[in-house]
Amino acid sequence: QVQLVESGGGLVQAGGSLRLSCTASRSIFTANPMAWYHQAPGKQRDLVAQMTTDGFTTYADSVKGRFTISRDHAKNTVYLQMNSLKPEDTAVYYCYANLFEQSYWGQGTQVTVSS
User: What is the mean pLDDT of the chain?
Assistant: First the structure.
């Protein structure tokens, strides 16, 4: 069992930046992948970015060049650096981990981008 706790969300103006953090209650070294999803009101939860254990990253087309996912194994933490934010990035952002074939989700953190 692992708990994931997100932080770093908030209100930011368009063009601004935020860094989300997701800290796990145990080692995420073997989690494959670690990922961030987002869900806007009335919409499905979609993949934003993911990183495999060998460092391979995947991004949604809408965030390529603006968002960066990274992992710090020493801190059991995965980050999502979000730059050049747009109003359409407004959503609840969820951390995800696949660990030993079990899926784990955080509780989500709200990101609101004002125009």
Answer: 96
